[in-house]
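Severity: low
Component: inverse-folding endpoint
Summary: output formatting inconsistent between runs
Steps to reproduce: submit the following structure tokens with default settings.
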């Protein structure tokens, strides 16, 4: 297309042609050049020829391969990861992977396996992860044991297995994860567990199996990284069966559709004879909840009581001095004091997230937790007009505080004076009321991360962020600035240590050229989902080597004098902008193609104008903005006529002057 000019004759002199460079896309999606490919759900019956021999990671699920053998993947000898989920595989023949020495992960999930040859898994020198989930296996004898010496994880969930008795000579010395969830296992014998004695720090998953019996002494003197018995109806059977064992993490939670027994003090008697660091009891009901319920919990370091229908914890709980982490999410407390925090004096991590009632913070409810470092009170409908010093009294070591997704909070001056060691503060989606010309964060000299997204902030308060001397990450997404403009004198001027700044969805129309003055340490700037134009890039000139996100703005044309500003950045995202693909933007389009290595989201960086090129990737557009043959012809004619006209004019003037002497 030719740019507009004042004269009609000149308009026909310069013309441009545009065309799209098209190429046939391969069926498989390339994630990393020559290495990683996704060929899922393409109806394939064989490995396509378009896949290079150098492929290392292949996702080939939801295709059709009823049988796999040594010629199926023979060309892809560099495979490291192979996902064959739901490919309707029935047969895995001998030496299928004999040439795949680097293969360490095979995923056969969801295939109705009928036969696996004894040597079907030979070949890989370090096969570490094998997924046989939902394959119809009813006995562990079905699994070929050849070449499993290096196996670290074996996933056998959602099958018909009733016994965990491993085949003779099954190698377990390197096994770290053994997953039996959602099978038909009801009894565990000493022989079953003894077969695993060579494994160290093993994680066993029995979730979804209603374990009704464990042979006494089966777990005696055994050490486990993790045991999961989620969904078991009788926890007392589980805990008695685990006596004299050592377990780092014990998951005993239940599920919504499980009708289990209420938990009482008697349920946990077996826990007194175990060494457990962490227990999860989510979604259970407690019956007769009293201090004695916790009698066998005294050695615990972590306790998760998520969604256990609690309205309060009993006072008088003793001996919980070892507990470091307490999770009370999704319960029904009226006030924070109802958790009786004084019973857990050594807590460093407390979470009361997603409370099902409006939670009143109360006064001094947590003052006995002077060692507390992390506190999550998000999604709990908390509302306070003068937060937060009385509510957070005596928490001098608190480093992480989450008050996001709550009701309006009024922040007083130096609202977090009781928590001077805070490093991360999350107030996202909580409407904040701050008095003009005040900073509620003034004493937080160690704060590094502050999330103020969608807080309905008064962004005209230039003092709002004063005192944040070490702030590195600031998120003010979704807050609006006066007249849609980020002015020269803005609230960012007091946080010169910023490295990451998120200003997305702020309805910005323009940015002053000096708006980011003094923010020379910036490495990441997100300005996406605003209404900025190309002219706003002048404000980015002080920034160098940053990740710059300008996606989903109103950028049509980027003037050539701003291209050096873009060139000095490390990564740029210009996707979802209404970009102009005409000769008026030729300098930017040329720059774009030369700097593809710096650009993110190139698949969504497309033309909006002219209509013939709408939706075409910018990298595929070719513009010819010079003169065509016709244009040159008209230019020659134009110049010739101009010379002739000039000659006649000179002759006429000379003749007229001579006649009037």
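Observed output (run 2 of 3):
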């Amino acid at each position: 297309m030719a740019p507009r000019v004042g004269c009609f004759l000149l308009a026909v002199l310069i013309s441009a042609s545009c065309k799209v460079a098209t190429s046939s896309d391969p069926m498989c999606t390339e994630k990393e050049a020559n290495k990683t490919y996704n060929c899922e759900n393409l109806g394939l019956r064989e490995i396509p020829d378009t896949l290079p021999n150098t492929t290392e990671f292949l996702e080939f699920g939801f295709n059709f391969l009823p049988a796999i053998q040594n010629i199926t993947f023979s060309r892809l000898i560099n495979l490291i990861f192979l996902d064959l989920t739901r490919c309707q595989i029935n047969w895995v023949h001998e030496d299928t992977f004999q040439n795949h020495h680097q293969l360490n992960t095979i995923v056969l999930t969801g295939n109705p396996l009928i036969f696996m040859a004894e040597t079907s898994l030979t070949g890989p020198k370090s096969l570490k992860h094998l997924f046989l989930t939902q394959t119809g296996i009813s006995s562990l004898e079905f699994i070929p044991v050849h070449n499993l010496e290096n196996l670290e994880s074996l996933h056998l969930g959602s099958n018909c297995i009733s016994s965990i008795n491993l085949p003779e000579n099954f190698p377990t010395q390197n096994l770290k994860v053994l997953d039996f969830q959602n099978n038909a296992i009801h009894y565990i014998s000493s022989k079953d567990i003894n077969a695993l004695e060579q494994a160290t720090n093993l994680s066993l998953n029995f979730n979804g199996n209603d374990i009704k019996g464990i042979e006494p002494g089966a777990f005696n003197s055994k050490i486990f990284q993790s045991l999961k018995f989620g969904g078991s109806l009788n926890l007392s059977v589980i805990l008695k069966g685990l006596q004299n064992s050592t377990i780092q993490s014990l998951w005993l939670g239940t599920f919504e559709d499980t009708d289990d027994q209420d938990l009482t003090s008697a349920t946990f008697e077996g826990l007194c004879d175990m060494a457990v660091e962490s227990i999860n009891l989510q979604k259970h009901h407690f019956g007769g909840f009293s201090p004695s319920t916790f009698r066998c919990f005294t050695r615990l370091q972590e306790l998760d009581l998520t969604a256990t229908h609690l309205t309060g914890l009993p006072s008088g709980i003793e001996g919980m001095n070892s507990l470091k982490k307490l999770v009370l999410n999704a319960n029904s407390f009226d006030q924070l004091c109802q958790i009786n925090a004084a019973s857990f004096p050594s807590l460093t991590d407390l979470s009361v997230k997603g409370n099902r009632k409006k939670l009143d913070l109360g006064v001094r409810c947590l003052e006995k937790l002077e060692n507390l470092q992390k506190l999550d009170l998000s999604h709990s409908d908390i509302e306070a007009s003068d937060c937060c010093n009385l509510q957070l009294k005596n928490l001098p070591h608190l480093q992480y505080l989450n008050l996001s997704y709550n009701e309006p909070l009024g922040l007083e001056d130096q609202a977090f004076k009781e928590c001077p060691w805070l490093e991360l503060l999350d107030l996202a989606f909580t409407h904040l009321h701050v008095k003009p010309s005040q900073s509620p964060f003034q004493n937080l000299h160690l704060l590094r991360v502050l999330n103020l997204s969608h807080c309905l902030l008064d962004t005209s308060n230039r003092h709002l962020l004063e005192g944040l001397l070490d702030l590195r990450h600031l998120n003010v997404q979704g807050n609006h600035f006066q007249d849609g403009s980020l002015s020269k004198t803005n609230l960012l001027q007091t946080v010169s240590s910023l490295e990451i700044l998120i200003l997305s969805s702020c309805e910005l129309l323009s940015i002053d050229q000096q708006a980011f003055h003094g923010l020379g340490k910036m490495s990441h700037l997100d300005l996406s989902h605003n209404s900025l134009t190309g002219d706003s890039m002048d404000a980015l000139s002080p920034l160098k080597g940053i990740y710059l996100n300008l996606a989903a703005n109103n950028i049509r044309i980027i003037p050539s004098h701003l291209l050096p500003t873009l060139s000095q950045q490390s990564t740029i995202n210009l996707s979802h902008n209404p970009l102009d693909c005409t000769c008026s933007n030729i300098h930017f389009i040329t720059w774009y193609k030369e700097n593809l290595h710096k650009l993110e989201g190139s698949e969504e960086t497309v033309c909006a104008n002219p209509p013939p090129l709408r939706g075409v990737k910018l990298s595929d557009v070719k513009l010819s903005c010079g003169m065509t043959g016709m244009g040159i012809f008209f230019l020659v004619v134009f110049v010739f006529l101009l010379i002739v006209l000039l000659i006649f004019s000179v002759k006429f003037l000379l003749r007229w002057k001579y006649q009037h002497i």
